[in-house]
Design brief:
alpha/beta; 15 helices; Rossmann fold; binds nicotinamide-adenine-dinucleotide; 7-stranded parallel beta sheet; 2 domains; 430 residues
């Protein structure tokens, strides 16, 4: 049983027959499981050159190519050569029969071009965005649809694998840009990752997931969470650092720990975050400043220090946990939304500055995630939050964690300055 009772009940055929729609149980990654649980259908528009590399990637992962009919686990269309309205007709001709064949938790992935100066081509590039976001709202049974916008010489392997895999269970209706960057292994073996706010909730799931995929995790949280933090460090085989990230010497202490114990950091995950909700009309300076200090100021200070002192490796990945509240705004959360929107602004400004060093900076914006916080919401608010997305359920902490893991891989360097929502294509802020 999950804590989503309606989803559990809806699996029962008797309840389903009463007219309760079945809420899909999403396929999630299990170590050793195949990339896809069935064949994949791959196509290309015009003289697109990526169908070959995608087929090779799938073959390497043991995925068979689909025959002329039958269910498929994934549909991949290379539309990077689409330039004209006629090319869009080709996209529709390919996708219409293809989506009918998509099985449960299936994946529709479209690769699109960066819009250039040609006006029709730019319109067509943007049209793919509309097609994919709409298809994401149409596909059923836990299937997702996403668009990867591919620059020339982009390193797409890591992102294609993620978006096709069960790791991206709750990433839906997203548009992600990928630029040049070398592919790398589909794990985090040998990488050192710092996770702030790792004692519980999403941060603990990130620590577990990164460690499962081979990373050595430095789990950071406030001294008051010391016992839970030690538990996370023990089970992940990493180190624990009791640290209030807002302390004036926080960046120095993190540095000292990294230098002494690990020598460097490859993945910096800014997950620690707090809420102090109040309507703007009743907002107090302490609530305002507390939220900005943890959620934004500490991240800026730690990033600045890591970059200045060259502790981030040359495949360094900074991953910041934002929120859909930072995109859509939320009643009672001017402080929180300011901090999370601020994180997005920080990511977009920093990414181009450090790209030349091989370092990427991205934000992950969770929507409704099943945590202690959401379990405590009044029933009506909780049910509303859970259902207003294309997958009709909340995500799990592991869904955020898997997305962080993808962005933390050495082979994900082509993805930078992006905001990836982990929200099941929530209507909030869409
Ligand atoms: P949580 O409250 O369960 O955990 C946050 C952790 O951060 C705690 O262990 C806490 O001790 C730690 N922390 C707080 N202040 C700290 C400080 N000054 N120094 C070091 N550690 C500190 O929260 P969660 O639900 O797991 O959320 C994790 C992140 O995801 C946050 O940034 C949150 O804003 C974001 N988020 C959560 C949701 C959701 O649905 N739960 C949705 C969107 C975004």
């Amino acid at each position: 049983m999950s804590n989503d009772t309606l989803r559990d009940l809806s699996q029962n055929p008797l309840v389903h027959r009463l007219g309760v729609p079945r809420i899909p149980v999403l396929r999630r990654h299990a170590p050793g499981a195949p990339l896809l649980d069935g064949p994949a259908l791959v196509g290309a528009v015009g003289d697109g050159t990526l169908a070959g590399p995608v087929r090779a990637l799938l073959a390497e992962a043991g995925v068979a190519e689909a025959g002329a009919d039958g269910k498929v686990a994934a549909v991949v269309l290379d539309a990077t050569a689409a330039r004209t309205i006629d090319d869009l007709a080709t996209v529709q001709e390919f996708l219409t029969p293809a989506v009918r064949r998509l099985g449960p938790s299936g994946r529709l992935l479209v690769l699109g071009p960066e819009p250039g100066a040609d006006v029709e081509a730019a319109a067509v590039a943007q049209a793919l965005d509309g097609i994919v976001r709409s298809a994401a709202k149409e596909v059923r049974a836990g299937a997702t649809a996403n668009l990867l916008v591919v620059a020339p010489d982009a390193g797409i392997g890591s992102s294609v694998r993620f978006l096709l895999s069960a790791r991206s269970a709750y990433v839906d209706g997203q548009v992600v840009h990928v630029g040049p960057g070398a592919d790398g292994p589909d794990d985090l073996a040998g990488r050192v990752a710092v996770v702030t706010g790792a004692a519980r909730g999403i941060g603990a799931a990130i620590a577990d997931t990164l460690a499962r995929d081979g990373a050595t995790v430095v789990a950071v949280d406030v001294p008051g969470a010391g016992e839970a933090l030690a538990g996370v460090a023990n089970r992940t085989g990493g180190t624990a650092l009791q640290l209030d990230i807002t302390a004036p010497d926080a960046a120095d202490r993190l540095h000292a720990h990294l230098r002494e114990r690990h020598g460097r950091v490859d993945v910096m995950v800014h997950n620690a975050g707090i809420t102090r909700d109040k309507l703007l009309a009743n907002m107090t300076a302490d609530r305002w400043n507390a939220v900005l200090a943890v959620n934004l100021r500490a991240q800026l200070a730690i990033n600045g220090a890591l970059l200045d002192e060259d502790l981030l490796s040359d495949t360094g990945r900074i991953v910041c946990v934002a929120s859909t509240s930072g995109i859509a705004g939320n009643r009672g959360q001017t402080n929180y939304a300011a901090s999370k929107a601020g994180v997005i602004g920080m990511v977009r400004a920093l990414a181009p500055q450090v790209r030349g060093r091989g370092i990427s900076v991205n934000a992950v914006a969770p929507g409704f995630i099943e945590t202690e916080m959401t379990a405590r919401m009044p029933l009506g608010t909780r049910e509303g939050g859970r259902r207003i997305n294309s997958l009709r359920q909340g995500g799990l902490p592991v869904d955020v964690a898997e997305t962080v893991g993808w962005l933390g891989r050495a082979g994900s360097g082509g993805v930078t300055g992006q905001v990836v929502r982990v929200c099941g294509q929530s209507m909030i802020g869409a």
